[in-house]
C-alpha cells in the first residue's frame, strides 16, 4: 500500500478521531489513544500499566503516585462519551502480577462503574498473564471481532486483521526545522498496533526494526495531538 493510498483511506470521524479501514472493518483512532470500532460499539485500550508508579516506589525509585487514577480518569471519559457495549483491555493492563492488589479503593470503584451495563474483556499480556482476579469482566488470550483478531503481542509476519499493543508505538515528526515526539497508532492497512494508554508507559519509535518485521514498508502513523489525531506519512518521520 502506498502512502497516497493510505491517506486516501483515512478521514476525520464526526465523533472525533481518525477513521480508517482495517481489512473489512472501519476503526477509529482516538486522540486519547483508545481505538473505537463504531459498527460494533467496542472500545479498546492497550497497555494501561496500572500501578506502575507504586511498583517502582516499592523498589526505591519514586515516581508520581497518580498514574492509575489519571489513566482511569481518561478511560472513564472515553466510556462516558462513546457508551460502548464492550470494553476491551489489550494486555499489560497492570504493570506487574501484584498490581491489582495495590489498587486504591477509588480506582476499583472506577473500574466497577465502567463495567455497569457492558462487557469487560481483559486480554492477558506479558506483565499480567493471568488477568485480574477480583474485578469485573473475563480474561482471554485473544478476541475475534469479525475479520479482526485482538491480541496483546503482535506476531511476526503478515497477519491481516491483527490488532495488538505491547510495543508502545511513538513517532518523531519533523516540522518547521524542529521535531516533536508523540505516541501514535501505526498501520499498514492490514494490521494495527495501538499506543500505550497508561500515563507512565514509555514508547518505541516506529522506525525501530521491531515494527519492520510486522508491517509493510512505509506504514502510516496516526499521531496523537491535542484533541486530534494526525495522519503522518513515512517521509515526515525521523529516528530518535
Q: Would you kindly provide a written description of the structure presented here, covering whatever features stand out?
A:
This protein has one domain (3-238): 4-Layer Sandwich (Purple Acid Phosphatase, chain A, domain 2). It is 18% helix and 31% strand. The protein contains five helices and 18 strands. The strands form two sheets. Strands 9, 10, 11, 12, 13, 14, 15, 16, 17 and 18 form a ten-stranded mixed beta sheet that branches. A hairpin with a 2-residue loop joins strand 9 (143-145) and strand 10 (148-150).
Helix proportion: 10-25%
* Helix-strand sequence: HEEEEEHHEHEEEEEEEEEHEEE
CATH class: Alpha Beta
Low-confidence stretches: 1-5
Number of helices: 5
SS-based class: alpha/beta
| CATH architecture classification name | 4-Layer Sandwich
Distance between the termini: 25 Å
Beta content comes to 25-35%
What is the assembly state of the chains in this entry? Answer: single chain
At the fold tier of CATH, the topology name is Purple Acid Phosphatase, chain A, domain 2
Number of strands: 18
Characterize the largest beta sheet: strand count, sense, and whether it forms a barrel. Answer: 10 strands, mixed
Domain module count? 1
Shape by Cα distribution: globular
Q: What number is the mean pLDDT?
A: 91
What gyration radius follows from the Cα positions, in whole Å? 17 Å
Amino acid at each position: 500500500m502506498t502512502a497516497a493510498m493510505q491517506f486516501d483511506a483515512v478521514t476525520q470521524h464526526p465523533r472525533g478521531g481518525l477513521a480508517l479501514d482495517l481489512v473489512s472493518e472501519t476503526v477509529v483512532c482516538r486522540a486519547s489513544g483508545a481505538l473505537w470500532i463504531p459498527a460494533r460499539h467496542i472500545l479498546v485500550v492497550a497497555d494501561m500499566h496500572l500501578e506502575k508508579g507504586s511498583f517502582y516506589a516499592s523498589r526505591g525509585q519514586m515516581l508520581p503516585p497518580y498514574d492509575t487514577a489519571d489513566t482511569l480518569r481518561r478511560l472513564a471519559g472515553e466510556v462516558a462519551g462513546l457508551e460502548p457495549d464492550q470494553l476491551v483491555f489489550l494486555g499489560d493492563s497492570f504493570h506487574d502480577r501484584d498490581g491489582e492488589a495495590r489498587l486504591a479503593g477509588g480506582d476499583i470503584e472506577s473500574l466497577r462503574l465502567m463495567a455497569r451495563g457492558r462487557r469487560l474483556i481483559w486480554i492477558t499480556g506479558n506483565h499480567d498473564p493471568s488477568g485480574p482476579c477480583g474485578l469485573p469482566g473475563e480474561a482471554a488470550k485473544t478476541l475475534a471481532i469479525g475479520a479482526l483478531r485482538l491480541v496483546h503481542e503482535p506476531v511476526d509476519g503478515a497477519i491481516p486483521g491483527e490488532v495488538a499493543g505491547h510495543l508502545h508505538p511513538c513517532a518523531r515528526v519533523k516540522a518547521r526545522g524542529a521535531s516533536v515526539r508523540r505516541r501514535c497508532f501505526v498501520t499498514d492497512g492490514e494490521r494495527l498496533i495501538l499506543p500505550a494508554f497508561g500515563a507512565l508507559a514509555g514508547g518505541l519509535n516506529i522506525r525501530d526494526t521491531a515494527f519492520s518485521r510486522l508491517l509493510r514498508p512505509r506504514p502510516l502513523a496516526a499521531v496523537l495531538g491535542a484533541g486530534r489525531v494526525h495522519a503522518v506519512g513515512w517521509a515526515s518521520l525521523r529516528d530518535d
